Amino acid sequence: MTSPRSLRSGFRALRPAAFGADPTGERLARIQRSPHFADGSFRNPTGVRPPLAGSKARFARMYFDKEQRLRRAPAGPVPVHPTTRADLAERPATGLRITWMGHSSVLAEIDGHRVLFDPVWGERCSPFAFAGPRRLHPVPLPLAALGPVDVVVISHDHYDHLDMPTIRRFAGTDTVFAVPLGVGAHLERWGVSSDRLRELDWQESTRIGGLTLTATPARHFCGRGLRNQQNTLWASWAVAGDTHRVFHSGDTGYFPGFLDIGAEHGPFDATMIQIGAYSDFWPDIHMTPEEGVRAHRDLQGGVAAAGVMLPIHWATFNLAPHPWAEPGEDTLGAAARIGARVASPAPGEPFEPGAAVPGTPWWRASSQRPAGDPTAPTTADGKVRDGELMPSMDDAQ
């Protein structure tokens, strides 16, 4: 007779590698000791409202409607900046350079060290090569063209932030990985040795080279497999060098804890803030552009102009009902109202927060549809809205 342990081992062997691995042994024991873990799952710093009755069906009807799908995609090719390895090999004049690679993938060169946040070079953010959200623009440059990377930082284990093929490309290098508690189990299954993992709970820090990396709270959730057990942590990250400091939000809903993070680890020379994939269907786990700008201000101790905000988590994958260009447009508007400095680089375009930052709304040329296009949103007088693909969720409801 086959034992239950043998059956469990068999099921693990059949589990697709992209699903990762569940924490076991001392890793699981450490998770269970975490002050943020209770009743079998990690808990958010503030509560998350459950979906409204019938909201899943309403969302499915909206998400898969053909006309709505067209409005959530760019009308033309998305411009990608032609950055080369030679460009990135040249040291930043100010000591800090940021290159947004699309979605939440960002290369931050900080005081002589190179940190890559949430690298996703795959064609789809999915466990399957044949299904799932596909890229709306190509990666700006091959991974090999990045040059050496000192640290890869992962915010959480969702597929649009933790990409198995990309991680495997780093598995045979000297790169160190900083990840939230529990996420190391996935990386070990994919070939990353345990001695190159720095696995942190919220408010824990690690020193890698000349950088201090701290896992800070976020308001989100986790999971890669068919069963979401909430036993891997999600985090935002504060990274401090000898001179410069940066913040990466990962995925998060707005919460008052940004003020505490800013007070303890800021102010930041640059914040990389999630402003896309929001919806009224899940209001507490992703920020709207207005909330993202508010978070940036909180992180800067209430002085919005103290550092540069880079909007992330938009334009690369179609993950929510909002118009494709809306996050970029609304972020510029919200930032202007409070005097925040916002960088708007095209994917792959490097900039230095201590110098002039890109400010051209590059997405507008890709978001405008011909006036005769039935998917082109119009105003009450019938004119095509500039830079918008569909009404906002508030307007639609």
| Helix/strand/pairing category | alpha/beta
Unreliable stretches (pLDDT < 50, length at least 5) are 6-11, 374-397
Q: Strand fraction band?
A: 15-25%
Q: How much is the average pLDDT? A: 88
Global shape:
globular
The CATH superfamily turns out to be: Ribonuclease Z/Hydroxyacylglutathione hydrolase-like
What is the helical fraction, as a range of percent? 10-25%
* Main sheet strand line-up: 8-7-6-5-4-3-16
Q: Radius of gyration, Cα only, in angstroms? A: 21 Å
From the 3D structure, determine the CATH topology: Metallo-beta-lactamase, Chain A
Outline the biggest β-sheet. Answer: 7 strands, mixed
Find the count of extended strands (DSSP E, 2+ residues): 16
DSSP summary: helix tally? 12
Compute the separation of the termini in Å.
58 Å
Number of domains: 1
- Give me the strand/helix succession: HHEEHHHEEEEHEHEEEEEHEHEHEEHH
Question: How is this structure best described in words?
Answer:
The protein has 397 residues and is α/β, with parallel strands linked by helices. It has one domain (56-396): Metallo-beta-lactamase, Chain A, CATH 3.60.15. Helix content is 24%, strand content 17%. It contains twelve helices and 16 strands. Mean pLDDT is 88; it is low at 6-11 and 374-397.
Which features would summarize this protein structure in a list?
disordered C terminus; alpha/beta; Metallo-beta-lactamase, Chain A; 16 strands; globular; seven-stranded mixed beta sheet
